[in-house]
Every structure is written in structure tokens, then in C-alpha cells.
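Sample intake sheet
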Amino acid sequence: MNDGMLSQEEIDALLKIGSGEEAATDKVEKNQLTPIEKDTLGEIGNISFGSSATTLSTLLNEKVEITTPSITVMNEDNVVDQLEFEHLRVEITYKEGFTGKSLFIIKKEDAAIISDIMLGGDGTNPDEELNEIHLSAVQEAMNQMMGASATSMSTIFGKKVDISPPVIGVNGGDQTAESMTVAKEFVKVSFQLKVGDLIDSNIMQVIPMPFAKELAGELLAIDESQEDQGNVSQETAYHEEAAATVLADSKPAPSYSTIYAAEQNDHDKEHEHYIGAPVDKNHAKVQQASFSEFERGQLNNQEKRNLDMLLDIPLKVTVELGRTSRTIKEILELSAGSIVELDKLAGEPVDILVNAKLIAKGEVVVIDENFGVRITEIASQTDRLLKLK
């Protein structure tokens, strides 16, 4: 403090620990990460962002690479210094599994390339200004990526981890990072992001120190528990093996009558000739196996009635006029009066599907004031069975 007085927190630490040296150590433990905690956070980021990279690659149809993360401890001043470039902030809130928030920071030009590809472009000439449509495209990409990351974390921690839809803003804005300013210390997890030949940049995740310690501590506790269980299993196996050895050594030697009976039993088994018996191959008699004639089973009336019960199951019948594929950009440009061209030629038979499986083709007719379809061709039984697989 400026007046030279101790704060209440410092007084409490002194009373609890009893020495200035130990108090300083306690302060370092609260505001810093141990090497093993850094390695643990790096492993969490490596696994979860590996899934995110796969998802982003699918969305953009480009090869996406994310390098091994680097972990840095920062304070509020460091965070501000690192964000002098134009950027997008995406705030993620954990609503199940964990209670906390994290912030993802991506350069504005990188976000523009991602949004351009999401909207049907090739990413080579993106718009410099990001409007609401561009931000929505980036938000959807981040939503898919963070969903994959949460799924990976569920596997790592052995419990369900779920997040709320991400909140996005340019240079932070008024919507993001409001609750992040409570913490004084942050952990920056920095990755190198490569998207094809379009992006070679950095993306970072900023986590409040308490939340980062919670993540690392819980995973370390899981690893320690699994290691203890493994040691117990090994120790149990060792004791069981030792006990079996002692019992084997303690068995009394067999008497002469026991040995003679065993030899006589082996002699009798040598002359047994039936399937599955341990016989001498030189004396074995091999015979061909015989089987009874197979008879086709017939359904009785009760069994037929059981099959008739399936006849009342409702099925969804769909008549498909045609299909087409459009980009997000083209869909957003649709308006009243727009014409969508399908892959069917005029006069070509329409497809008749039952539970989304093609079973017939037909032509459209009008019955009174309703549309109908006249079946002109039934798919062969072989084709229908193949489509059911």
C-alpha cells in the first residue's frame, strides 16, 4: 500500500504462516504456476485444440494445423500490451462440468479469412470490414470448435463438460471480457494457427489464474488416483503370485499309489477314441462327422399373427422433386421470387422414399385440388435391401 501499512490479506498470511519467507512462498503459489501445472495445462490445450483443429478443417475444407501450446503467466497490464493489434475476442462460459470463463483472441484479418470461406469465398480476398454476417460466420465456426473442445475435455476429465454459445466482439467490445477483469493474474495459452496457405498466425486463450489452477489441479488429482489404483493392482498381483508359489511348494509329495493311479489313468485315456479326447495321434482313428438332415421350419398360425402385428407400424412416405446444393452466401441472398434450380429435368420421374429410403419412382398428378403421384417403377428387391444396409 502507498501509506506503508499492511493489507488485511498480508496480515492474515503472516498470522497463518508465521514467517515472512513462508508468506512470500504462499503468494507465489497462488499467483504463479508450478512447472507440472504448466505441463498439465499444455496437455489439456493440446488435446482439446487438436479436436478444434479437426473441426475447423472440416468447416473450411482446408488443412488446419495447431502447434503445441506455450504457457505464459500475465497480469492485466501484460494482457493490454499483447492486444494492441486489431482482434476479435470470443468469450466462452462453462455451464456444466466447470464454473469459469475463458477468452479466445484471434487477429481480425484471420477472422476475415475464416468468415469469407464460411460464406462461400476462397479466403484470398476477404472484406476488410466485418459486418454482422461476417461476425455470425466466425461465431458459428468458434461455436463448432469449442463444442469439439468441450467434448475432448469431457473425455479427459471423465465427466460431462458443456459450454454456452460463445459471445463475440471486435477489439473486445462491450459484450466480452466483463467478468474477466475481476482476476488480476491470467494464464495465456498461445498456439500457432495454420490454415492451408491462407493463415499463418497466432491464436491465444486467456484463462483467469483461479480457473487455470482448478483445471490443472483436477486433472492432476485424476492422474494421481489412477496411478494409486495401478500400484494397488500391481501389489495385489504380486501377493497373489507369492501366495500361489508358497502353496505349490507346501504340497506333500505324491505317494507311490497316487503315481501308479495317474499312470494307469493316462494309459486308459490313450485308448479312448472320441472327439475332444487327448489321444495319441499315432493310434487315433479319424472318422467323418455325420449330421442330421436340415429341415426348413414352417411358421404356425400364431407366429404368422405375430408378424401381422408389424403391418400397423406407420412409415413416412416422401415424394422428392429434386435436390440442389448451395453455399451459405447463396442461401442468405434468397428472397421472395428467387428461383432455385434442382438436379431433375422437366418431365423426369420423381423419387418416392419410405423412411428416407428410395423404393420407387413416379410422376406427379393432380387429383381434384390435391397433388398426387402415380407409381411408374418399383425398385428391385435387391436394390431395396442394399439401401437398407
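Comment: The radius of gyration is 36 Å. The first helix runs from residue 8 to 17.
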